[in-house]
């Protein structure tokens, strides 16, 4: 099944972000639906209608977000009427529901609010459990069309409760999706390793570069779910053999969750000491539910005197090698481990920019160290990107170095 997503709202053409279609595309991919096109359109009836008509000709599924509210610029219903060639008709039951919803919140129904009870002839309403504007579903001879609210919380709940169950029961060939996650490689190096697999029959591979690493999105089609699952597993195993330890997880795995699982399996603990990342590593680790079982805590030591006082970095080291150095990273890692009583310690120091760089120590230079009972290892990184990217990449690379240390030979 191929899909066309349409985000409605003039604000989307003025620089405001569209988060709905990205979320929908990811969720549709999980259930084997390919998104072939994503369109943004302003609050213009004719423009919306034209996109809907085109989508219904070219796709099996069309989903619109936005334009279902009570205001004058909410024109999705009228646009659907135009595209489908069906008149808008009031629905007494929906009007009653809207009136009850408003009165229950101390508001008086008016004609603008009751406009939300209109639907093109032949359309069915979708329940909105988070708000007032109902969604719509239309079944044509060749396609399914859904219109859902633009408010993200309302859109997501309506997709989960009303849209996805219909799509899962639609039948046809089964398309399964899996995301393989890779660390420690560039996009081009991964591409070289798997390039011949792009021609795999009934399969589609997409490679994506993220700040956290590389993602390989696998989509495999089969006549049945079992057939598709078998094809997907075969492709997964082939890629896994080629990428070996650089492949760290699948689907919802993150470097932090994988590290946490490895620590938990060994009844080991971790502590951190950060300079340039200023607590971002600690925040990333504690996004994992249950992190308190294996994460002891962290030190944020931006100033040199605190590197010494809190993490135990020697003043001589700071004077001789500088705050941004392998020596300082090593002492940060050791200090975090020893002072916070953990089995592993990570130290990070660097220059995130945009200022502070020198010819010898440019912006993007980061040192990471990992300490454990076997000793300390350190890594010099020169990371591209702006301040935010340097910091996020430093965190990801630090977690990957720790992952390899934990899972590697004793």
Essential attributes:
about 400 residues; Molybdenum Cofactor Biosythetic Enzyme, Chain A; Alpha-Beta Plaits; Maf protein; six-stranded mixed beta sheet; five-stranded mixed beta sheet; 14 helices; about 40% helix; about 25% strand; elongated
Short description:
By secondary structure, the protein is of the alpha/beta class.
What is the gyration radius calculated from CA atoms?
27 Å
Summed up, the domain count is 3
Low-confidence parts: none
Structural class, from helix and strand content?
alpha/beta
- The CATH architecture of the largest domain can be named as 3-Layer(aba) Sandwich
Beta fraction:
25-35%
Chain-wise SSE layout:
Layout: E1 2-8, H1 20-30, E2 34-41, H2 45-58, E3 61-65, H3 76-84, E4 88-90, H4 92-103, H5 111-114, E5 118-120, E6 124-126, E7 135-139, E8 144-148, H6 152-168, E9 174-182, H7 187-194, E10 203-210, E11 213-222, H8 225-243, E12 247-250, H9 255-265, E13 270-274, H10 280-285, E14 295-300, H11 304-311, H12 315-320, H13 326-339, E15 344-350, E16 365-372, E17 375-382, H14 387-407
Parallel strand pairs: 1-2, 1-3, 3-8, 13-14, 13-15
Antiparallel strand pairs: 4-5, 6-7, 7-8, 9-11, 9-12, 10-11, 15-16, 16-17
Description:
The chain has 14 helices and 17 strands. It is an alpha/beta fold. The protein folds into three domains: 2-168, MoaB/Mog-like domain (Molybdenum Cofactor Biosythetic Enzyme, Chain A), CATH 3.40.980.10; 174-250, Alpha-Beta Plaits; 255-407, Maf protein. The chain has helices spanning 20-30, 45-58, 76-84, 92-103, 111-114, 152-168, 187-194, 225-243, 255-265, 280-285, 304-311, 315-320, 326-339, 387-407; strands at 2-8, 34-41, 61-65, 88-90, 118-120, 124-126, 135-139, 144-148, 174-182, 203-210, 213-222, 247-250, 270-274, 295-300, 344-350, 365-372, 375-382. Strands 2-1-3-8-7-6 form a six-stranded mixed sheet, with helices on both faces. Strands 14-13-15-16-17 form a five-stranded mixed sheet, with helices on both faces. It is 39% helix and 25% strand.
